[in-house]
Amino acid sequence: xxxxxxxxxxxxxxxxxSGVARPASAAAPDEFDVVVVGSGAAGMTxxxxxxxxxxxxxxxxxxxxxxxxxxxxxxxxxxxxxxxVLAAGVPDTPAKAARYLAAVVGDVPAxxxxxxxxxxxxxxxxxxxxxxxxxxxxxGYSDYYPELPGGIARGRSIEPxxxxxxxxxxxxxxxxxxxxxxxxxxxxxGADYKWLALALVNAKGAATAxxxxxxxxxxALAGEKPLTMGQALAGGLRAGLMQAQVPVRLNTGLEDxxxxxxxxxxxxxARGLVRxxxxxxxxxxxxxxxxxxxxxxxxxxxxxxxxVGAKENTGDGHRAGQRAGAAVDLMDDAWWGPAIPVPGTPxxxxxxxxxPGGLMIDAAGRRFVNEAAPYSDVVHVMYDRNPTRPCxxxxxxxxxxxxxxxxxxxxxxxxxLPEDWYRSxxxxxxxxxxxxxxxxxxxxxxxxxxxxxxxHQALTGRDTDFRRGDSAYDHYYTDPAVIxxxxxxxxxxxxxxxxxxxxxxxGTKGGLVTDARARVLxxxxxxxxxxxxxxxxxxxxxxxxxxxxGSTIGPGHDVRLHRGQRRLGRGEELLPQEQQREHxxxxxxxxxxxxxxxxxxxxxxxRWQRAExxxxxxxxxxxxxxxxxxxxxxxxxxxxxxxxxxxxQQRGHASRPQRTVTVLGxxxxxKFLAEQTGMSPNGINGCGRARNSLVEIGAGRPRxxxxxxxxxxxxxxxx
Length: 719
Prior knowledge:
Largest sheet: 8 strands, mixed
Structural class: alpha+beta
CATH superfamily of the domain at 337-505: Succinate dehydrogenase/fumarate reductase flavoprotein, catalytic domain
Radius of gyration: 26 Å
CATH topology of the domain at 337-505: Flavocytochrome C3, Chain A, domain 1
Mean pLDDT: 80
Shape: globular
Number of helices: 21
Number of strands: 28
Strand content: 15-25%
Low-confidence stretches: 1-28, 558-643, 648-670, 681-719
């Protein structure tokens, strides 16, 4: 396609030579101080900042809409110490944030980390002053590794508040639509989805749904056009640009960079050359929809059909930057997440794989990962294991009890799944585990054994294989009514379902290498004059990891443009600007250790572990023997559970703690639980009563049933 475009341009009188465009006619091209490529969060924030500094600016957008992937997203933003989180009482400090980020991202240069942490809060304040955007704190959305030094279990993420789309006027029609539209008549925030999944079984979930409906009703009565999440973020930034009189040219894609005397001085588009007196800022997104680039740089199997990124993200900025001499990094990585390949667009799994009563298996019918781990970690494990123990696709297995209780994607509890999901092979249903195994092509005996072992662990509340529930993050998308571990519940009620899981992504995270001022660098470390990059076109500041919800958007928000433009105002030649660096992918699923989830911040105060666990510090040292080398080691520990499981199977049941368990409940359910957990049925007596009673495990403290849907009284004591 690029070649054809060049041929067309050549026929129009433009000569392209070695990536340098020179006009063949004397007609004066457009000219601005700053030319921004891409109208996502990174590009629009950069343009807004340039305009506020008194520079002329234009935004060039390839798509017929503005907003890019940011408009499609949930728009969480992870930026420590910003004024929104501090006003909410989050106990954050610059030193704490620096310790945490360093532990998460590993060997990302310290000056890049420092620039992000210093400029990020200023960027949030700048956007609040120069646009109609307002933000809300996502209370309780934990940092993804809260047990690391400086981690906060309460979280640091924020999201846009409601924006009335009428501020955009006719431009509202040009806003890129969301990835998943909210139900009609409801105004939903990103933080609501945790509770909406539980609306049928949890009072707060029902209240959250009612509040979302009330907001929608109030907005309709007032004649408003409420926008939230990515729609509010992109719409608010666009409204700021409209107020600053910054044009956004749609259907104007980057063809190449215009270079004069070794410096980037403009952008060549199909409509002609747009000159830049001070610099060009690339915010053109990733290359997730470029099949050739994905095949070249990324592990197989890969393609373009599993991503939820904007379809226009085909690596135009990457290729133009490389032609100008830029170095690239992290090209094999992405903002990964398990996805279900349903017809139309893949479904990116968040709560579905974390809610109790589900587990993920590989082609051998075995669990292989902490299902509740950060989504990028899960896919890293899938790719790491797949060559030797195939797990692409994997399968998420749940039972009817799970389906009766929880929202799944946009399907309400107990309602049938769409028929085209079954026809496409995205989901399989069967009344027995053996039948389900046969349908998805895994060994029946292995699946039975896996479910039996998982159910046994669910009864005790401890996942000794993969430590699901050890981290506070694991408990965000779970059911608080399920105890002692809100992540774990047995699978007991047929029919059973298996959802196909593939490596999805929110976009790629590899791109042009930049310094702390967002200047694009060559392989030898020298600067490409006049060229800057932010967002997914640049190599992410998060490296191969993911600090918290909104790590893709937060660092990509052009946070360092402010410093550069102040310098520019004093007469500097080049326009420094945010080097955006994001961070999703990455590391350790179960390296946490049972920390106390009622602590507002963990890491430093309780040594990442519960005080009542005598081996807590020893276990943590095993997981993180050296924080300076943590990033290289964490993913290896994801596979430790697999080795533990194999060793346990080789030792046999004799190696497991022997327990006597008495269960009172419905006889068919109790018989199934006994079979699945490997417990002797001798102590099972049917109560014949359909009511909630208590569950007592281990220490003898009475608790509610940890497997909803079954009444019972369970006691267990080591023999």
